Amino acid sequence: MTLSLVARDGDRFGIVASSSSPAVAARVAHLRPGIGAATSQNVTDPRLGARLLDGLAQHGDAERALAEVAGAAEHIAYRQLTVLGRSGPGFAYSGAETLGKHATASADGLVAAGNMLCGEHIPEVLLDAFVSATGELEQRLLAALEAAVAAGGEAGPVHSAGLVVVADVDWRVTDLRVDWAEDPVERLGEVLDIWLPQRDDYVRRGLNPASAPSYGVPGDL
């Protein structure tokens, strides 16, 4: 079972996801700076996320990219996909073999999907909570996931959660994962509280190490 939200914020793209399975973000979240973001979930085929982004890179049309992948991929009935480009709404696909109660929802700059849910309203909860939240993209993504969990979320216990963001550099400026825990969403929030104040400093370290701050760790001169 998997629950995910993909969001665009200016030139940033982010994904937050949770699952009963381990290491959800490592398997379902796909992002490419300046291009877009996509998820491949349910009975996951990670190759499909990359193919969705390849389509976006070629022509920039999220709806077309989804149709191309869904029309060509093997075993597509078992897949649940989302994709979001540089403009417009996100798009989603749920194959006939998608597990349990499942649903998707989309708006301008947003798309959510889930399977094995407590109810089909949960993707809309993700969208509404994201729009109502304030703060950095990461904080709004986490707030949306917390709201979805509070509204019932997935039908069974959740064991992994992840939050990933790309911006205007060639790597993931945020890539946080709780790969197995009894309370992964809560622990993800704790990690985000530690990470977010340092996020931009680590970007500076990559681009211009001489200007990056020192954190005074042992051995740091």
Describe it.
The protein is of the alpha+beta class and 221 residues long. It contains seven helices and ten strands. It has a six-stranded antiparallel β-sheet with strand order 7-8-1-2-9-10. Strands 3-4-5-6 form a four-stranded antiparallel β-sheet. A hairpin with a 2-residue loop joins strand 7 and strand 8. 46% of the residues are buried. The model has no long low-confidence stretch (mean pLDDT 95).
Which key phrases capture this entry?
221 residues, alpha+beta, six-stranded antiparallel beta sheet, four-stranded antiparallel beta sheet, 7 helices
Number of helices: 7
Structural class: alpha+beta
Mean residue pLDDT? 95
Number of strands: 10
State the strand order across the main sheet.
Answer: 7-8-1-2-9-10
In short:
This protein has helices spanning 24-28, 46-59, 62-72, 122-132, 137-150, 184-195, 199-207; strands at residues 2-9, 12-19, 29-32, 36-42, 79-84, 91-94, 103-107, 110-114, 160-166, 172-178. It has seven helices and ten strands.
Give the arrangement of secondary structure elements.
Elements: E1 2-9, E2 12-19, H1 24-28, E3 29-32, E4 36-42, H2 46-59, H3 62-72, E5 79-84, E6 91-94, E7 103-107, E8 110-114, H4 122-132, H5 137-150, E9 160-166, E10 172-178, H6 184-195, H7 199-207
Antiparallel strand pairs: 1-2, 1-8, 2-9, 3-4, 4-5, 5-6, 7-8, 9-10
Helix pairs in contact: 2-3, 4-5, 5-6
